[in-house]
Write a structure and sequence with these properties.
alpha/beta, six-stranded mixed β-sheet, five-stranded mixed β-sheet, 21% helix, elongated, binds adenosine monophosphate, binds magnesium ion
């Protein structure tokens, strides 16, 4: 038996980062940047107002107070988006809106609420003049040119994961097309004489193909593009044809046919199509696993991961082995899922010294996480995955975990959108 880490290490050794593609900005969400992005200009491009108010000179409002406002002559107005030739001199003011460029000569913006603007309006007094009721320090309410991003500076480095804020920053630089590491296309093939397509009438002795769907959904959730290859019978010819249909993919994932007691067709076909090893991994569920490189006639090799057929085992082995492989192909910096510490509320027995990944629902009470088993842990009970938020990990050497013990839980949908990657 090999450990989970050993299996993962052997798999990742064969996985390479994919090539890059250039695509429209919004389509790059969740992908990794394949270029360094420098700012072609200052952001913001000019000093602009952070408030609606009056652009003035500090000199003009020295000593101003509510009782002793400074009366300034209003020489015009600038709205956001307009370029004005207005100039502010001592004793004058320009009415200015948030985001509008600060006119020449002004060194401070006084918000409306610190002027007599409203009183003048209500009393229908001329607004050719304005009374300023405060004295503000120079630069108040002015966003300085380049204060967010300076021209020529590296804004986003090669290898950075693009989350919504990165997409926004790239947009602020006017970058509509972006180079990113492309998403892998992952072939998904189910195997088994008993497995039926989900749009067929269920014949006696058959079960529906749930694996291809949970696996394809997992592929999508970690950024890959699934290529459905249907269900192959346990028949050499059919299976060979089906596997070869995945030869244009970046990786092929199959489910079923790799356990010890299986009718050997799947293993036989896989072994004939490349260098495939059949492992028993020291974990529960999901002991049997196949991995290797399938060989095309033109010599190109495609990584293949043969997951166990039991629906829970196939999902869990995907999380542990396929997800990191897909992340690596996408150039992601962190391949691990987020683990938390939680107090287990049930007892877990470990009878055969494997690492147990127990399906648990996680809740938070009084600042502490608690994990409780989601019912029957059979590897065919797919609804127990549906109820789970993560997998509680029982080490190989631990014989029993008693309620109240703190365990590590690998979370499924923790927002791992780059938390580790950005903080690494
Ligand atoms: P195997 O690994 O092929 O021996 O399959 C183990 C168990 O998983 C058997 O009970 C199969 O019926 C079941 N199984 C295999 N493939 C699928 C599939 N695509 N969808 C749902 N169950 C499956
Ligand atoms: Mg089978």
């Amino acid at each position: 038996m090999i450990s989970v880490e050993e299996a993962r290490g052997k798999i990742l050794d064969f996985i390479k980062v994919l090539d890059k593609e250039e695509k429209p900005l919004l389509n790059c969400l969740g992908q990794v940047l394949a270029e360094g992005v420098y700012s072609p200009f200052d952001v913001p491009p000019q000093d602009n107002s952070a408030m609606d108010g009056y652009a003035v000179q500090v000199k003009s409002i020295e000593g101003a107070s509510y009782e002793h406002p400074r009366i300034l002559r209003v020489v015009g107005e600038v709205a956001a988006g307009c370029v004005s030739g207005l100039k502010v001199e001592t004793g004058t003011a320009v009415r200015i809106m948030t985001g509008a460029f600060v006119p020449n000569g002004a060194d401070v913006v006084v918000p409306f609420e610190d002027t007599d603007e409203v009183d003048r309006k209500q009393a229908s007094i001329s607004r050719d003049e304005i009374g300023v009721r405060v004295c503000l320090p120079e630069g108040s309410n002015i966003r300085r040119r380049g204060e967010d991003i300076a021209k020529g500076g590296l804004v986003l480095e090669w290898g950075r994961l693009l989350c919504p804020a990165e997409i926004g920053v790239l947009a602020s630089l006017g970058k509509s097309m972006v180079w990113v590491i492309r998403r892998p296309i992952v072939g998904v093939l189910a195997t088994g004489d008993e497995v039926s397509e989900i749009d067929q009438h269920l014949q006696p002795g058959k079960i529906y193909n749930s694996n291809s769907y949970s696996l394809a959904a997992q592929i999508i959730s970690c950024g890959g593009i699934p290529k459905p290859l249907g269900v192959a019978r346990d028949d050499v010819k059919q299976l060979t044809t089906a596997i070869r249909q995945g030869f244009d993919c970046d990786m092929l994932v199959t489910s079923g046919g790799v356990s010890l007691g299986d009718y050997d067709v799947v293993k036989q076909v896989l072994a004939a199509e490349g260098d495939i090893s059949f492992w028993t991994v020291c974990m529960k569920p999901g002991k049997p696993l196949a991995f290797g490189m399938l060989k095309r006639n033109d010599g190109k090799k495609i990584p293949h991961l043969g997951l166990p057929g039991n629906p829970v085992s196939s999902m869990i082995t995907f999380e542990l082995f396929a997800r990191p492989a897909i992340f690596k192909m996408m150039g992601r910096g962190s391949l691990a899922k987020h683990n938390i510490q939680a107090v287990i509320e049930d007892s877990i027995e470990n009878r055969d010294g494997r690492r147990i990944f127990a399906r648990v629902a996680v809740s938070k009470r009084n600042g502490k996480y608690y994990a409780s088993i989601t019912g029957h842990q059979g590897s065919g009970i797919l609804t127990s995955m549906m109820k789970a938020d993560g997998l509680a990990i029982v080490p190989e050497t631990t014989k029993q975990i008693k309620p109240g013990t703190t365990v590590e839980v690998m979370m499924f949908d923790w927002n791992d959108g780059g938390i580790h990657e950005k903080n690494k």
